[in-house]
């Protein structure tokens, strides 16, 4: 299987990093494949925090600055969730004089080793990660409703999604939307989905509730689907994850088989002519 790549975009605070980390955990559990997350928010990297990684010894910034450094040295494996993470450096000093186009070189290397790659992006127009748009296949736009005034919500969303979609289209990416931080009481959600799917023509792949467990999990350094798998947001994220699996791989995708299943399949295939012998 060639490595599918997803780039996650959206406004600041919309939940991009939250979705990056949680969808990665979901894909790992659901597909048993090696999932790598890359912190493409080079100025305010926070992906590591979502996995309790606060001061990486070797960061993405180190491998971006030094092409002779093996990029795999910046990959961390989270034993609790099975997800691989490439965290950025929290030091302001490391951000200066950075050539963000180096990100494409590094992601290119990672594509050789991992099964699914998710690139987290900075706010707004994702200049830092633009160089990777040629290497990925999907763009997931995270839209939050929480801080949108009701009277202008549609105009704001249209503005945001249309612009980001135009960038995705430029690179031939398949584009989808996740609505995040949705309060149950917000009645206009139906209208928003209609706007995004009907007028803009982008599928809404998930609607995730505003849930205090999400920041609580962040404080614990563990994605919410792992920390509180039964809470409202986790259930919604898992549903979005399942929609994404179907969107990306079609309906027939199954877990990559384990050793015994593979042995069983080999034996069965070997016996097949005899079992079906007439
Ligand atoms: N569904 C949600 N419910 C409640 N809080 C959320 C939800 N999604 C994200 N958050 C919180 O919002 C803040 C911003 O999320 P983050 O993923 O860092 O956004 P971004 O990466 O888009 O800037 C974090 O404190 C996070 O815990
Ligand atoms: Mg972020």
Can you lay out the helices and strands and say which pair or pack?
Layout: E1 5-10, H1 16-31, E2 35-39, H2 60-65, E3 76-77, E4 84-86, H3 92-95, H4 102-111, E5 116-120, E6 138-144, H5 153-170, E7 174-182, H6 189-200, E8 204-209, H7 213-220, H8 224-227, H9 232-249, H10 259-275
Parallel strand pairs: 1-5, 1-6, 2-4, 2-5, 6-7, 7-8
Antiparallel strand pairs: 3-4
Bound molecules: adenosine-5'-diphosphate and magnesium ion (MG).
CATH architecture classification name: 3-Layer(aba) Sandwich
Largest beta sheet: what is the strand line-up?
Answer: 3-4-2-5-1-6-7-8
CATH class: Alpha Beta
Q: Would you give the CATH topology?
A: Rossmann fold
Small-molecule binders: adenosine-5'-diphosphate, magnesium ion
CATH superfamily, by name, is P-loop containing nucleotide triphosphate hydrolases
Number of helical runs?
Answer: 10
The helicity comes to: 40-55%
Number of domains: 1
Q: How big is the Rg?
A: 20 Å
- Give the averaged pLDDT, no decimals: 88
Q: Care to count the β-strands?
A: 8
The class by helix and strand makeup works out as alpha/beta
Largest sheet: 8 strands, mixed
Weakly predicted, low-confidence segments: none
Order of helices and strands: EHEHEEHHEEHEHEHHHH
Q: What is the distance, rounded to the nearest whole angstrom, between the alpha carbons of the first and last residues? A: 36 Å
Q: How large a portion of the residues is in β-strands, by DSSP E? A: 15-25%
Global outline: globular
């Amino acid at each position: 299987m060639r490595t599918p790549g997803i780039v996650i975009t959206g406004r600041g605070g919309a939940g991009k990093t939250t979705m990056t980390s949680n969808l990665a955990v979901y894909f790992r559990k659901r597909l048993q494949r090696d999932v790598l997350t890359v912190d493409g928010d080079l100025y305010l990297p926070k992906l590591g925090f979502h996995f309790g990684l606060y001061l990486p010894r070797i960061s993405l910034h180190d491998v971006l600055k030094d092409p002779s450094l093996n990029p795999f040295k910046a990959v961390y494996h989270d034993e609790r969730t099975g997800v691989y993470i490439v965290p950025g450096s929290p030091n302001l000093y490391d951000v200066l004089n950075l050539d963000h186009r180096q990100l494409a070189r590094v992601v290119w290397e990672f594509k050789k080793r991992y099964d699914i790659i998710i690139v987290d992006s900075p706010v707004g127009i994702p200049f830092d990660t633009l160089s990777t748009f040629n290497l990925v296949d999907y763009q997931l736009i995270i839209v939050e409703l929480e801080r949108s005034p009701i009277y202008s919500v549609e105009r704001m969303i249209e503005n945001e999604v249309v612009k980001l979609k135009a960038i995705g289209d430029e690179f031939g990416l398949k584009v989808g939307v996740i609505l995040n931080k949705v309060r149950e009481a917000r009645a206009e959600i139906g209208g928003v989905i209609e706007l995004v799917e009907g007028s803009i023509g982008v599928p809404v792949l998930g609607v995730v509730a505003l849930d205090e467990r999400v920041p609580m999990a962040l404080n614990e350094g563990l994605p919410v689907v792992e920390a509180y798998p039964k809470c409202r947001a986790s259930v919604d994220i898992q549903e979005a994850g399942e929609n994404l699996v179907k969107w990306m791989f079609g309906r027939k995708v199954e877990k990559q088989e384990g050793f015994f299943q593979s042995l069983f399949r080999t034996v069965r295939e070997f016996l097949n002519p005899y079992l079906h012998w007439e």
